[in-house]
Amino acid sequence: MHGHAQARTYATLGERFGARYKWYVSATVMLGTFSVVLAATIINVAVPAIMTRFAVAQDQVHWLATGFLAAMTVGMLLNAWAAARFGSRGAFALAMGGFILASLVGGFSGDFAVLVAARVGQGLTAGMIQPHALVAIFQVFPVHRRGQAMGIYGMGVILGPAIAPALGGVLVDSFSWRATFIVVLPACAVAAGLAWRFLPGRGPRRASLDWLGVALLSAALLALLWAIASLHRRGLLDPWVGLALFGGIILALLFVAWQRRVREPLLELRVLAQPGFASGFVLSIVMGAGLFASTYLAPLYFQQSAGMSASASGLMLVPAGLAMAFVFPVAGHLTDRVPIRWIVAAGLAFFVASMVLLAAAEIPTSAAWLVVWALFGRLGVGLMMPPITTASLGLLPEDQLDRASGIINFGRQIGGALGVNLSAVLAQYASDFYRFRHPNEPATRVFEAGFDYAFVVLALLFVLAFWPLHRLSRAIARDAV
């Protein structure tokens, strides 16, 4: 009922603005999506400067990325409710306004806790904006042009991370790390204004939200991520760490149990019972962990170990981002023509090779080789993402695709939050251990030891992912019979 009412509203606006209306809507939502995706990764280049400014270590500063990703996970689950409750116009403009406010707080903050809170606010509102953009574009494009719509959406999602490192590095070196919060604000303000003009208002349906589910999930994520982040400094025997770890697991189990009982769940977990789909979900978690953790670690590695400036480290990552943007449509094309297992296996192998080569690199390694090895990792993720999503959803009936897509996106975001969290803690632990064993080594070598350890662990995680890939391939083969 609501979807049809929404479509009629889009149609009414289409009659008012004419044939160009779909491009007005596309420009509106893609400007918003590009802004929030850019903000998600642009800060990674500024992390060393932030560490110096607030005197924080790796196992603390990672909250800037972890908090964003975890909050974005919750925001994505709020998107459908917000669109139904406030309409496309209200939900999009409200989320953009919240994102602008959080960015201003972050840009002018003088306390690290406030900075983390601002990143959480950015993540929550970004999570509401990104999926809303895809829904809006699908509404205004006819069925036979949905592929074109996906291409437009994909460009906005991929272009941000591709240019973010270079832009962030220039801003940090030329101005301050604070500029990485401010640079997206003009585009955000324009997107909010365009949304008020071109997106439809609220439909007739009163929306309901599983507030208990939101509370349980948020509390579980906070407890588990804090417990993991605190292991190095406090130790496993610390009562607060133990309480957070045990409480987080209990809250997560309660969330799962509640989602199976509630009438309109945030996540339709029953689809995980479909043979093979759970393996696709696990692969999405691994892929998210690798994508976001490597995106977080690489600029720190280039600055703290190789001694590069923020601008140089950002430029080092541009080829990798462009390679991922290039391989993404190629992987989508191959998905319809080559067995899934070969494409995903190639992606896993590329990523493992990237992490192993970066871990084996010594400080004097040529910058050109570091660029190539970072590029391998992006090629790997680009090869994996389309076929994993397509294969997982292909195992399900059509009436479950929307809910199953939400599960896959949820897995990727959760994997990203956990991947950044664990890799930052492991890097700090390994650095401290190496400093204890070799107190006279220079700081660059100490940092390098920590990054090497984190890269190796990520490589091992992707080696283990061949097992769920095998199970997914078997399920696809059975489904094809």
Structure description:
With 481 residues, this protein is mainly alpha-helical. Helix content is 83%, strand content 0%. The protein has helices spanning 2-17, 21-42, 47-54, 58-61, 63-108, 112-140, 146-174, 179-182, 185-198, 211-234, 239-261, 277-305, 310-335, 340-360, 367-394, 401-437, 443-464, 466-480. Helix 12 runs antiparallel to helix 15 (367-394). Mean pLDDT is 84; it is low at 1-8.
Strand fraction band? under 5%
The tally of strands reads 0
Mean pLDDT rating: 84
Shape: globular
Number of helices: 18
Outline the biggest β-sheet.
none
The parts where pLDDT drops under 50 for at least 5 residues are: 1-8
Radius of gyration: 22 Å
The level of helicity is over 70%
For the terminal residues, how far apart are their CA atoms? 37 Å
- The ordered string of helix (H) and strand (E) elements is HHHHHHHHHHHHHHHHHH
Helix/strand-derived category reads mainly alpha
Produce the secondary structure layout.
Layout: H1 2-17, H2 21-42, H3 47-54, H4 58-61, H5 63-108, H6 112-140, H7 146-174, H8 179-182, H9 185-198, H10 211-234, H11 239-261, H12 277-305, H13 310-335, H14 340-360, H15 367-394, H16 401-437, H17 443-464, H18 466-480
